[in-house]
Write a structure and sequence with these properties.
The protein is α/β, with parallel strands linked by helices and 238 residues long. The protein has a single domain, classed as Spore Coat Polysaccharide Biosynthesis Protein SpsA, Chain A, CATH 3.90.550. Helix content is 41%, strand content 21%. It has a 7-stranded mixed β-sheet, sandwiched between helices. Helix 3 links the parallel strand 2 and strand 3. It starts with a strand and ends in a 6-residue tail after the last helix.
Length: 238
């Protein structure tokens, strides 16, 4: 059977301390045994700590964001490039060591076994290492998740997770305009609007390697506003 192409997408901004740890733990053989041929893509928002050089050393394909800084901008640019490839699925995860690359295979199996559009790794249903998530962020994530499910009607337990597997069909149907950390919430809203089937897998969430870039209150407000706006504005203005 011919191997299918899958992209593992790692958004970065000064993640030299975590990138090697993540890439070297990716279970290439296990992924191949599930019928997938893997390529690693780093989309970088302007790193100055050697992340780009390290990514090249690790044989990653590199996308330098041309649309400006911000995780949302970077992911949208990477999604567009993905759609011009022949790959059939995309794994999205952070490059800071919080998500375990060893669990990629579990999410991939779920998307195959259930024939669904999206599988997300749920931290809320899984195991959170002590110190990996502050109590304020834990409460905030629950509140944002409740708001999103209430407004959009599609159940998830972890709106703000950064660990996703998306089919080509899912990415093609999503219309996004997020700039920053609200991108995952908009992906959820777009998926719900388009009737895409989402499943969850419990995952581990570990303490990050390096400094956090998420500002809980300001980013939380942006996430909430994005969820609300996308309830009433089905097609965002780019």
């Amino acid at each position: 059977m011919k191997q299918r192409g899958i992209t593992i997408l790692l958004p970065t901004l000064d993640e030299a301390r975590g990138l090697r740890n993540v890439v070297e733990r990716i279970p290439f053989k296990d992924i191949a045994s599930e019928g997938w041929d893997t390529r690693i893509v780093v989309v970088d928002g302007g790193s100055t700590d050697g992340t780009i050089e390290l990514a090249a050393e690790l044989n990653c394909e590199i996308i330098r964001q041309h649309s400006g800084s911000g995780k949302g901008r970077g992911l949208r640019e990477a999604f567009s490039i993905f759609m011009n490839s022949n790959d059939l699925a995309l794994v999205m995860m952070d490059a800071d060591g919080t998500y375990r690359p060893e669990e990629i295979t579990t999410l991939i199996k779920k998307i195959d076994e259930d024939d669904v559009d999206i599988v997300i790794g749920s931290r809320m249903k899984g195991w959170i290492e002590s110190g990996a998530m502050s109590r304020r962020n834990w409460i905030g994530n629950h509140m944002l998740t409740w708001l999103a499910v209430f407004l959009h009607g599609t159940y998830v337990s972890d709106l703000c997770t950064g660990f996703w597997v998306l089919s080509r069909n899912a990415i093609e149907k999503m219309e996004l305009n997020s700039i920053g950390f609200e991108i995952e919430a908009e992906m959820y809203a777009a998926a719900a609007h388009n009737g895409l089937v989402i499943r969850e897998v419990p995952i581990h969430y570990d303490r990050r390697i390096g400094d956090s870039k998420l500002g809980s209150i300001a980013d939380g407000i942006r996430i909430a506003m994005k969820v609300i706006r996308r309830r009433f504005v089905r097609k965002p203005i780019s």
